[in-house]
Amino acid sequence: MAVQWSGLAPEGLITLDRGRGVPLRAQLEDQFRQAIRSGRLAAGDRVPSSRALASALGLSRGLVQECYAQLLAEGYLVSRGGSATRVATAASRAGPARQAPPPAPARLAADFASGVPDLASAPRQDWAWAVREACRTAPNTDLGYGDPAGNLRLREILAGYLRRVRAADTTAGQVIICSGMAQALGLVLRALAGQGLARVGFEDPGAPASMTATAAWAGVEAVPVPVDDRGVDVAALEATSAGAVVLTPAHQWPTGVVLAAERRLALLDWATRRKAVIIEDDYDAEFRYDRDPVGALQGLAPDLVVTLGTVSKSLAPVLRLGWIASPPRLAGTLARAKQVTDRGSPGLDQLALALLIETGRYDRHLRRMRAEYAARRDVLVQALAEHAPGVPLTGLAAGFHAVAHLPPGTTEQEVIRAARSRSVGLYGMSTCRADQAPSPPQLVLGFGNTRHQAIQTGIAVLGDILGLALPPRSEALLAVQAPRHPGPAGRGRNAWPRRSRKRQRTSVTPVMAGSGRRAPVRIHTVTATFPAA
Q1: Could you say which DSSP state residue 317 is in?
Q2: Do 483 and 289 touch, CB atoms closer than 8 A?
Q3: What is the overall mean pLDDT for the chain?
Q4: Which of 334, 359, 384 is the last residue of a domain?
Q5: Domains in the chain: how many in total?
Q6: What is the DSSP letter of 288?
Q7: Same domain, yes or no, for 239 and 320?
Q8: Do 371 and 335 fall within a single domain?
Q9: CA of 505: how far to CAs of 373, 383, 494, in Å?
Q10: Mean pLDDT over residues 410-439, rounded?
Q11: Is 472 a residue whose pLDDT tops 80?
Q12: 298 and 347: one domain?
């Protein structure tokens, strides 16, 4: 006779075999004893009511009550009036020891972690509205599995957005929706590996850990290619014999340089001659402060360039939404790879993103955040000018991180450790280098998720750490890129954000990096008292 199963609770799975010669009550009692002894039923766990268990197993309630009475008498179960019957503490065996949760990270007064947008400013209300609206208006067909390449409406809206904002040359048929930048890169590399790719180049400094891991998952070798102040070294790329390269041309991570025009042309010439593929990581190009964002490289050569984008920097990483703008010859292969991987990204989230872009809410959020990040960048520049005037900053024209150049002889890790002892999180450039070289000593200062006051406090706390190792610089107070401030929306392009509290303002004249021009910068002086180190 068939075995009957009851799944009232996973830990209390009961099996009865009516074909055995053992009475059903004895089988039931034995099943409970084994479950309690093994720890599958832990001390204090509730057992099903006699009525529910009898119904699930097709037994009489009286038989189950007799079983419970026997287990109560033996001490396996306990029962109190008005309360459920539970496993007795003395009868239960200790299960496997649980690992202690990792200790919570120390709370920092200021954390200059890079690559994280302002999470507090994520457009929660707009996103909630978009999700509700998508649920209300989506046709029934949109609730099925759908096209693994993504919802057609979102792909059409995204293609139009990329043409309008990023000067891309793409259509809905070339766009594949994916779950963020990591999946996008993995899909592209696997598709290219299937067509014979054996080696891919990546920028150095860049993201060597994630790049080598993704390349290994795709079955290709990742090789570093040096970057200088004009972007990736195309001659060095040629020497690697790579068949593809991953770049951040609009705002190189982490140095912040823009790929120079002649390098762009040389790169396209390399790809044409080698029949290679350029993979463009367009991670934060919308946030540029000195001029309009640099157009996507894909617009120059749509048959040679695959562009990857994401909302992780523009909205929030938790959404896990990104896209691939592919050459026509790869679009079908990538769509099939996406289908095999996960059958497609969450459909309602795709419809919500389409609504945000279509209604202009996405653009409004970007304008608001562009002004906010520009203001935080100014606070960082001003705080360093006051507390560590000899530390030059570069990479300030876009994004929400900058590079601080420490003087020769400074030990990057010692500065980071000293800062941590004062509850300030600093991060070195050495982790972005393929060989982890500690020289030249540099810090990558993220300010996207760091509030104005935290930036001021953090730099003020570190003034002596940075200042003691630095010779005074008499030729200029600052040696930074000082592009014009975009100002908040609706108050003029060069407007400064209003502040509720009064500050002492002092005008200084910094020298702009890379030129002899001078540009006025306002310094906000804040008086603060900190405990002695």
Answers
A1: G
A2: yes
A3: 85
A4: 359
A5: 3
A6: B
A7: yes
A8: no
A9: 21, 13, 17
A10: 95
A11: no
A12: yes
CA atoms of 466 and 406, how far apart (whole Å): 8
In this structure, are 421 and 275 located in the same domain? no
490: tokens are 């609706």
**Cβ neighbours for 185, distance < 8 A, ≥ 6 positions apart:** 214, 246, 279, 281, 308
What CATH number has the domain bearing residue 258?
3.40.640.10
The amino acid occupying position 360 is G
Separation of CA 130 from chain center: 22
DSSP-assigned beta bridge partners for residue 118: none
DSSP letter for 483, please.
Answer: P
* Tokens 């972007």 belong to residue: 231
Q: What is the DSSP letter of 95?
A: -
Give domain status of residue 253, yes or no: yes
- Where a domain ends, among 337, 359, 381? 359
> How far apart are alpha carbons 413 and 419 in whole angstroms?
10
298/194 same-domain check: yes
Question: How many Cβ atoms are within 10 Å of 491's Cβ, its own excluded?
Answer: 12
Tell whether the model's pLDDT for residue 366 goes beyond 90: yes
Cα dihedral value 67, 68, 74, 78, nearest 10: 170
Does the residue 104 lie in any domain? no
pLDDT band at 525 (very low <50, low <70, confident <90, very high): very low
Together in a domain, 238 and 310: yes
Determine the Cα–Cα distance for residues 194 and 83; give it in Å rounded to an integer.
Answer: 62
Tokens 């104005």 found at: 452
CATH number of the domain that residue 58 is part of? 1.10.10.10
On whether residue 532 sits in a domain, the answer given is no
Helices H, strands E: what count in the chain?
14, 21
* Contact criterion met (CB below 8 Å) for 528 and 460: yes
SS3 content of the chain, % helix, strand, coil (to 5): 40, 15, 45
How many Å apart are CA 435 and CA 245, to the nearest integer? 19
For 62, the token pair is 């009286």
Give 528's contacts (C-beta < 8 A, 6+ positions apart): 456, 457, 460
Model pTM score = 0.75
Q: Does residue 389 share a domain with residue 308?
A: no
Say yes or no: 319 and 394 in one domain.
Answer: no
Q: Torsion over CA of 512, 476, 485 and 448, rounded to 10 degrees? A: 100
Rounded Cα gap, residues 22 and 190, in angstroms = 57
Q: How far apart are CA 502 and CA 505, in angstroms?
A: 9
452-468 and 361-387 helices cross at what angle (nearest 10)?
A: 30
Q: Report the CATH number at residue 466.
A: 3.90.1150.10
Give the residue with greater pLDDT, 242 vs 12.
242
Question: What's the rounded Cα separation, in Å, for the pair 96 and 110?
Answer: 40
- Of the pLDDT bands very low, low, confident and very high (cuts 50, 70, 90), residue 3 is very low
Domain that includes residue 44, residue range = 3-87
Q: CA 135 from chain center: how many Å?
A: 26
Residue 107 covered by a domain: no
